[in-house]
Amino acid sequence: MSYSAAFRCASRDDTGCATVLPLDQVVYRCPTCGGLLEVVHDLAALRAAHDGAGWRALFDERWRATRWPHDSGVWGKHEVVAPHVRTEHVVSMHEGGTHLMWATRYGRDLGVEQVHVKQCGVSHTGSFKDLGMTVLVSTVNQMIADGRAIPAIACASTGDTSAALAAYAAAAGIRAIVILPRGKISTAQLVQPLANGAQVLALDTDFDGCMRIVQELAANDGVYLANSMNSLRLEGQKTVAMEIVQQLGWEVPDWVIIPGGNLGNVSALGAGFQLLLDLGIITRRPRICVAQAAHASPLYQSYRRDFAPLEPVAARTTLASAIQIGNPVSFGKAVRALRACDGVVEEATEAELADAAARADRTGLFACPHTGVALAALEKLIARGLVRPEHRAVVISTASGLKFADFKVGYHEGTLAEVPAPRWRNVPEELPADYGAVRDAVRRGLGA
Description:
Strand 6 (153-156), helix 7 (160-172) and strand 7 form a beta-alpha-beta unit. It is built from 18 helices and 13 strands. The chain is an alpha/beta fold.
């Protein structure tokens, strides 16, 4: 069976634009109307190959397989993600297939029996960005093999995108250029692209300023753009939605809560659920909540006005640095996904996101600050009665908490200016090397 996909103008519903372009064309916006593009698949061919039960059986057979490239959670769904990439040009590091952790104690503390955390940070570079980057770099790898001259792949980043691009480009032997806001990402995030040999440029601006410059490089200097305005990235990321349903025995959760910055991830998960519907694999969508940091919440401000047009904001410094974005590229796609999924938007203050992450950590997690934003939003949805005790809710954990050790240390040392009274702070007790002193401390801890 032959499968195919193409770029299509994502503004078609608003403008009637009918532009369709091949996936090997270097293009990021519709040349006709200037709107973003999206990847569309030949649904007729996919439906002719298998019904819903057949696709479920095929994906289950490949789940965490040992056969290349199906050992990847992304490439195990090759036909519905990137049929244009030939197997010999796939650049993969066994991404995807990450845990869907049933956070039993945490959920019970909140009064909801089935709270799950999709641990996307359990990936090669420690974030969900690997899922999109494997598709994008594989596409470029094939384009180069087919004779197209692409000197480098470039991205603007607040940390995780740069790590993923640098690693996958290094594996493919393609030059990577990373543009970061100077002094605004964690040390662990900065060292990843350096270690993988990328050219790292730290600019005196914020993410939105970096994004403007990398778009100029792509337009004027021939580098290939790797940010989420390139819809190939979203094709890999949509497999998160597909994995969630698969890991729940092909049952759809009631809620999915997603941290939102540039808003590519909610667009991707919305596309993933839509494709599952189109192929008859599921019969309904979950409700989606996008969670934003209050210091960078243009989508939340729009939502409060019935999804009014985007008004970019000057994003303020937030502990959730990866979503410190005031002018999200994928705003329109995100709104469309939220409307389709009866979605809502919440925001979290600095104290709320830090306390929510620390509370979850007390039940065995080690949540990054962006996951803390989503956990805080979940707590608010429960308080409002939108997430009820009988619901099944899935929180998307976007990155490993190990990338944000400074955030954890600052919280428990009480040195985060944004969190003057950390609710779940835990500190070591300093004692002499004396059995009696240790015994007394243990007894105090046990309430004896």
